[in-house]
Every structure is written in structure tokens, then in C-alpha cells.
């Protein structure tokens, strides 16, 4: 107690940390960019781009170029007005320096004189946050006939803003290099991630040209007089977007791989109570929904008040229309939000003068006025759309009725499967060999292909922490199957019960029985197919498990190599060759060895014996594993199950939108897109012969 009293006495004013300048950003970067992982790294690009995009929204900019440079640098250039460089009356330094080194400073606070009626970057922290989290930043401004420049390191200026020449151009160029001390997972930007994000922005700002250039291999000096790298004229990968169609074009892009249920894409654009509302939607033959919301052109992955207003109005309108036209029977009840969303692809965009996000990353809109404005504008326009397009309305309502019936059937099926478990303690599947531990954090389950591999895995496992569930053949493709049919599959039902989370609206991640679900299939075409079917199931119905990082793919060895008395395992052809040494005709040797083993003809092939004779060295025998069932329990433990030696690949969803599109394409019922995808990626496929 005495020691605690001494500490309490020492707690005074001097104990309070006062962080100056941009130090709070470096101390707590997650508060400003959400994460210091790969998403946070790319968020730096979005922050700088958003400033240029806001210039375009104000009518001052027509072209933005984002370039990936060597040494993991990014360069964002625009032909806007250019950040002011004159002395700021309050800070007594250049406005450019103020914007780049001071939190909550920017043109978005300047009232009507700033020229920003609506803007995404209302917090005014974007440029300064990027500056703080970069080892090097350079701001170049072309305006008022001059060319100005200032450089920074970790948010601190390296010198004053200086005029470095004259210029007839106007615009701003921001270059930055992320700090590896902050982004410990890596500072390499992904070209496709940037392209996919900026494609959306091009749809949202009509008349804006957005260019993305991969100049990471460019070794020449970039002339300060050049605003756009495209002007240099060297060959480099690039993508340019320019759309006049707005949200209708974006909906067409999202539905290009799917079958539309109605021809006309619904569209409305109107201002209500000072809130600009723009919505486009179309229903497709799919069981999932896709709602893409924006507020002041900032993508809101977590939704917000504008999405709430939209969903409420949509559910009310379809119920009203159905009852008015006697489409729904009394016994069927009414549509829920879940029913009317099935198959919906919608883009919602709102623009507000005073905007409120929940957090600096702007993932969720909090402005309450957006909810009422969206509900009113969308409600009136969509009601007219249904009345004026009865065939479209019929297709949409029939889709919702199908979803309603499926929901009730799925609930009955789920209750049938899970009721016993909820009330009496469900017996785990007979084929499951469970582990002894009840601590999910140390428990793992191997989902293996076939009874043979299952039996071997059961003998080789660590019974305390490792469970084994064998699958018999390929499971049901759930991409086009509803929940009631899915739970009719014994294989899927066993997996659901084994995981313990339930499914659908009763899913509960906290009841997960294992924190590692390890998919262990054979390294052949059938094994890859089974793995894909399992991943489809997990992605569509157990997405939180994927997001939590609980899904893994086992990497069993492809080869067992015996060199004399030594045994080695190889996980690739390259590793096999490195272990076996310089041996000619190694593939032919393996084939002959397999044939001899199949005939019971000894361990070493003739080629191995020849190699021994020629080199006078140790005999070499190589066995190719075609499946887990070919291993004995000891081999399977050593290579695939032992946590100290095994190789696992963790499955994550870096780009959920792209993942959704790939699953739709490869596992859906439409042959055309799948054929096109296979043809496009045929050259990059790994073929198992």
C-alpha cells in the first residue's frame, strides 16, 4: 500500500503527456486510418486522392493521376486550384505548411469562400495524417504563375515553403513514402486494389478523368515541371477511367456477370432538405445482395443512416404494393428486410454540407438527416417506378416472394436440425473424432477428404487439441442452394454441428468450438474442387469465421525423398530438385519408381541405382504423394499435423467484392461468365496431370 501511495503522490501535472504537432498520429495511427495493416496503408492513398477529388466535386479539377513509384512511393497529381501558399493569418506560416503539418486544418472549414459546397474530407486531417505516417513527403503546388515546394519527414518540415520557378499550370502534387516503422506488415502498394477503388470514384464524379499508372520500374528523374507522368511518354502499365453514366453505369458494371430480372435500371437524383440523394438499383437472379453506399463520394463499407433509410423505405414499399395488388396471401404474412434484399444490387450516394462520420476512416455515416432524405426521395420515386413498370414490379415482387418462402422453409429445416441441440445437447456427428480440450483457442479441426485419410489422421493426431472430420466425396455446391436444401446434406449438417456456431440468423461466433478449421484435401483436381466447395460454403454462410482468421488450408508435401537413411519431404518441384541434387530425367525416374512400387518391386528405381553407380554416392528414392491416404500416421503427423513442422495457409478476404465476384462466376449457374473467366486465366493456371 505504501508503494501505491508513493505512486499516487507522483501523479501530478508533469505526468500528463502533451503531444505536439502530428505526434498523436504517430503514437495512435489506428485512430486516424483504422489499422496499420494493408488496409490502413492504402487508406493513405484514399486520403490524398479525396482532397483532389473534392476539388473536382467543386468544379475546379478535371483530371487526377495516381502513380505508384519506385521505393513504395505514391504520387497524386491534380489540375485543381493548387493549395494556397500565402501566409496563414493565424499560424503565421504558409497555408501549404499549415495544411500539411497541422491536424484539422484545410479548405473544408472555410465556409462558402472555400468553394467546397460538399466534401468528403471534412475532418481536415487527411494530408497531415499521411505526412505524419510517411518517412518522406513532398508537396508541389502550381498556382498564380509560380511553382512552390516543401518537403517533410515524419510530419516535420525539412525547410520552409519556397518558390522554385514559374509555371503556367495550376494544381497540386503530393508524393509520399509510408513509414515501415508504422506499417510493419509491409509498405508495398497493390496496383489492383488502387484501380478497383478509384473505378468507383470515376463513376461517382461525372466528367472526371482518373488515371492510375504503375511506374515502379521507371528509373528516370521526374521533372518538376510535369504535373502528369503520362506526359513523360515512357511505356508503363496504366488504367484510365472516365464515365458519364454515373450510378447507372456502376450498377451495370456490378451486374455484368449476372442475369437481370428486369430490364430497366431504377434511377433517381433529387435534393431533399439540403441533402442530395442519388440511387440506382436492379434485381438479379442471385441469393445475395449488394448495397454500395457513399456519402460525399466516400465509400461507407459499414453503411450508416442513408442505408437505414433506404432499407426501411424499400421494405415498406414492396409490402404496400403487394397488398394493394393482392399479390401476397394473408397466410404468407409480409416481407421482411431480408426478403426484399435478396438479389438486389444498389448504389446509394448522398451529399451533405455538414457531414458526420463515425470515426476518421469514414466507414459509417452518422448524419441523421440523410436517413429521412433518402427514405423520402427513394420512396416517392420507387413507388412511381413500380406503378409505371408493372412487368418490372412483378419480377421484383416474385423474387421477394420466393425469398419469403425460402426463409420460412429454411427456418423449419434449421429448427429441425438444431432444435435437439439447443434443448437437449446435440450428439456430435458419428464420423467426428473430437479433441479432448474444450478450449476453442487451442483446439483445431481437420476436415479431410475420404475415410482413408480420415482414419490415418485420427491415428496420427494429437488427441488433446486436434479433431478430425472426414468428408465423403464432394459436398453440395451451396452457391445456388438455399438453406433448407443445404441443411438436407448430411455432410454440411455434420460440419455445422461440429463447428457449434449454428447458422443463419442464429449464428454465434462465440460458440465456435475450434479456432483453427484446417481444410486438408489431396493435391489433385478433385482435392482442389472439394476445397473450393468448402470455401464457398464458409464464405457464403460463415463469413465471420473467415473474417476472424479461423480458416486454414493444409499444405501436405508432394514428395518423400530417401537419400540413404535420410528422409526428406519436399513441398514443391523446386524443393524436390534441391534435395535430390542434380539428377537427369527426374520426372521419368519418379514415374518408373511409382510403377515399381505399385508392382511391389522394391524401393529404388532403376534410375536411382544408375545415379548411385555413376556418382558413387548415396542411393536416392523419390515418392510422389497423390493423396493424404498414401501416408501412414507418422508421416501425416510429421508433415501436415505437427504444429512445430507443418505448413498452413491462412485464408483471408483482402477484397470481399472481388471474392464475391469470383465465387459468383466460378460456382454460379451461368456458363458464359465462367467460360470467359477460365479462358482469360488459362495461362496462369496450375495443371495437375
Write up what this structure looks like:
- The chain is 38% helix and 18% strand.
- The chain has five domains: 23-241, Heat Shock Protein 90; 247-407, Ribosomal Protein S5, domain 2; 427-556 and 630-653, Rossmann fold (3-Layer(aba) Sandwich); 560-624, no CATH class; 654-689, no CATH class.
- The longest helix is centred in the middle third of the chain and has 35 residues, at 390-424.
- The chain is of the alpha+beta class and 689 residues long.
- Strand 3 and strand 4 form a beta hairpin.
- Mean pLDDT is 82; it is low at 11-19, 108-113, 419-425, 601-616 and 685-689.
- The strands form four sheets. Strands 1, 2, 3, 4, 5, 6, 7, 8 and 9 form a nine-stranded mixed beta sheet that branches.
Key features?
689 residues; alpha+beta; Heat Shock Protein 90; Ribosomal Protein S5, domain 2; Rossmann fold; five-stranded mixed beta sheet; 38% helix; globular; disordered C terminus
Question: Concise description?
Answer:
The chain is of the alpha+beta class and about 700 residues long. Helix content is about 40%, strand content about 20%.
Task: List the topology elements.
Layout: H1 2-10, H2 23-27, H3 30-33, H4 38-57, E1 63-69, E2 73-78, H5 95-101, H6 126-132, E3 134-143, E4 146-153, E5 156-157, E6 162-166, E7 171-178, H7 191-204, E8 209-214, E9 238-241, H8 246-254, E10 266-272, E11 275-283, E12 290-295, E13 298-299, H9 305-324, H10 337-341, E14 344-351, H11 369-388, H12 390-424, E15 444-449, H13 450-460, E16 466-471, H14 483-486, H15 490-499, E17 516-520, H16 525-541, H17 543-547, E18 551-554, E19 559-563, E20 566-570, H18 573-580, H19 586-598, H20 606-615, E21 620-624, H21 633-641, E22 648-650, H22 656-667, H23 671-681
Parallel strand pairs: 1-8, 12-14, 15-16, 15-17, 17-18
Antiparallel strand pairs: 1-2, 2-7, 3-4, 3-7, 4-5, 4-6, 8-9, 10-11, 11-14, 12-13, 18-22, 19-20, 19-21
Amino acid at each position: 500500500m505504501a508503494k501505491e501511495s508513493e505512486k499516487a503522490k507522483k501523479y501530478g501535472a508533469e505526468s500528463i503527456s502533451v503531444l505536439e504537432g502530428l505526434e498523436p498520429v504517430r503514437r495512435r495511427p489506428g485512430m486516424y486510418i483504422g489499422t496499420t495493416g494493408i488496409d490502413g496503408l492504402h487508406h493513405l492513398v484514399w486520403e490524398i486522392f479525396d482532397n483532389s477529388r473534392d476539388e473536382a466535386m467543386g468544379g475546379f479539377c478535371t483530371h487526377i493521376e495516381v502513380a505508384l513509384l519506385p521505393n513504395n512511393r505514391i504520387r497524386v497529381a491534380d489540375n485543381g486550384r493548387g493549395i494556397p501558399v500565402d501566409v496563414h493569418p493565424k499560424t503565421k506560416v504558409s497555408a501549404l505548411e499549415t495544411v500539411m503539418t497541422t491536424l484539422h486544418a484545410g479548405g473544408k472549414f472555410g465556409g462558402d469562400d472555400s468553394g467546397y459546397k460538399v466534401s468528403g474530407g471534412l475532418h481536415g486531417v487527411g494530408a497531415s495524417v499521411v505526412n505524419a505516417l510517411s518517412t518522406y513527403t513532398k508537396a508541389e503546388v502550381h498556382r498564380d504563375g509560380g511553382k512552390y515546394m516543401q518537403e517533410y519527414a515524419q510530419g516535420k518540415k525539412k525547410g520552409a515553403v519556397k518558390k522554385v520557378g514559374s509555371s503556367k499550370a495550376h494544381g497540386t502534387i503530393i508524393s509520399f513514402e509510408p513509414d515501415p516503422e508504422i506499417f510493419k506488415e509491409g509498405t508495398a502498394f497493390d496496383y489492383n486494389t488502387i484501380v478497383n477503388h478509384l473505378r468507383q470514384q470515376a463513376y461517382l464524379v461525372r466528367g472526371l478523368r482518373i488515371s492510375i499508372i504503375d511506374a515502379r520500374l521507371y528509373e528516370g528523374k521526374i521533372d518538376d515541371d510535369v504535373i502528369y507522368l503520362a506526359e513523360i511518354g515512357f511505356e508503363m502499365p496504366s488504367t484510365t477511367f472516365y464515365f458519364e453514366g454515373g450510378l447507372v453505369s456502376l450498377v451495370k458494371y456490378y451486374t455484368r456477370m449476372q442475369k437481370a430480372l428486369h430490364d430497366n435500371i431504377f434511377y433517381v437524383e433529387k435534393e431533399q432538405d439540403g441533402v442530395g440523394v442519388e440511387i440506382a438499383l436492379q434485381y438479379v437472379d442471385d441469393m445475395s445482395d449488394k448495397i454500395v453506399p457513399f456519402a460525399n463520394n466516400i465509400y461507407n463499407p459499414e453503411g450508416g443512416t442513408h442505408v437505414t433509410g433506404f432499407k426501411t423505405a424499400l421494405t415498406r414499399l414492396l409490402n404496400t404494393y403487394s397488398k394493394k395488388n393482392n399479390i401476397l396471401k394473408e397466410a404468407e404474412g409480409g416481407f421482411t428486410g431480408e426478403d426484399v434484399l435478396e438479389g438486389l444490387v444498389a448504389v446509394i450516394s448522398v451529399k451533405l454540407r455538414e457531414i458526420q462520420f463515425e470515426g476518421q476512416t469514414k466507414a459509417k455515416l452518422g448524419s441523421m438527416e440523410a436517413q429521412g432524405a433518402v427514405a423520402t426521395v427513394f420512396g416517392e420515386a420507387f413507388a412511381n417506378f413500380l406503378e409505371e413498370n408493372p412487368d418490372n414490379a412483378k419480377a421484383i415482387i416474385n423474387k421477394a416472394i420466393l425469398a419469403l418462402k425460402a426463409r420460412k422453409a429454411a427456418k423449419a429445416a434449421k429448427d429441425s436440425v438444431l432444435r435437439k441441440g439447443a434443448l437437449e445437447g446435440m450428439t456430435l456427428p458419428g464420423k467426428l473424432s473430437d479433441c479432448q480440450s474444450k478450449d476453442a483457442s487451442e483446439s483445431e479441426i481437420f476436415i479431410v477428404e475420404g475415410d482413408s485419410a480420415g482414419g490415418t489422421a485420427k491415428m496420427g493426431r494429437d488427441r488433446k487439441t486436434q479433431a478430425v472430420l472426414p468428408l465423403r466425396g464432394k459436398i453440395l455446391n451451396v452457391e445456388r442452394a438455399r438453406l433448407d436444401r443445404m441443411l438436407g446434406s448430411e455432410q454440411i449438417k455434420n460440419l455445422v454441428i461440429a463447428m457449434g456456431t449454428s447458422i443463419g440468423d442464429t449464428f454465434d461466433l462465440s460458440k465456435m468450438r475450434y479456432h483453427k478449421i484446417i481444410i486438408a484435401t489431396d493435391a489433385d483436381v478433385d482435392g482442389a474442387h472439394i476445397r473450393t466447395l468448402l470455401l464457398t460454403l464458409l464464405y457464403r454462410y460463415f463469413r465471420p469465421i473467415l473474417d476472424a482468421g479461423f480458416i486454414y488450408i493444409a499444405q501436405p508435401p508432394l514428395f518423400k525423398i530417401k537419400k540413404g537413411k535420410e528422409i526428406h519431404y519436399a513441398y514443391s518441384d523446386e524443393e524436390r530438385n534441391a534435395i535430390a541434387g542434380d539428377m537427369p530425367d527426374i520426372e521419368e525416374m519418379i514415374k518408373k519408381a511409382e510403377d515399381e512400387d505399385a508392382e511391389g518391386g522394391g524401393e529404388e528405381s532403376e534410375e536411382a541405382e544408375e545415379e548411385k553407380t555413376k556418382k558413387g554416392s548415396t542411393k536416392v528414392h523419390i515418392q510422389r504423394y497423390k493423396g493424404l491416404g498414401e501416408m501412414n500416421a507418422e508421416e501425416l503427423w510429421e508433415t501436415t499435423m505437427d504444429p512445430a513442422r507443418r505448413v498452413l495457409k491462412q485464408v483471408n478476404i483482402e477484397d470481399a467484392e472481388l471474392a464475391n465476384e469470383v465465387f459468383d462466376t466460378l460456382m454460379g449457374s451461368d456458363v458464359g461468365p465462367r467460360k470467359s473467366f477460365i479462358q482469360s486465366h488459362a495461362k496462369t493456371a496450375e495443371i495437375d496431370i
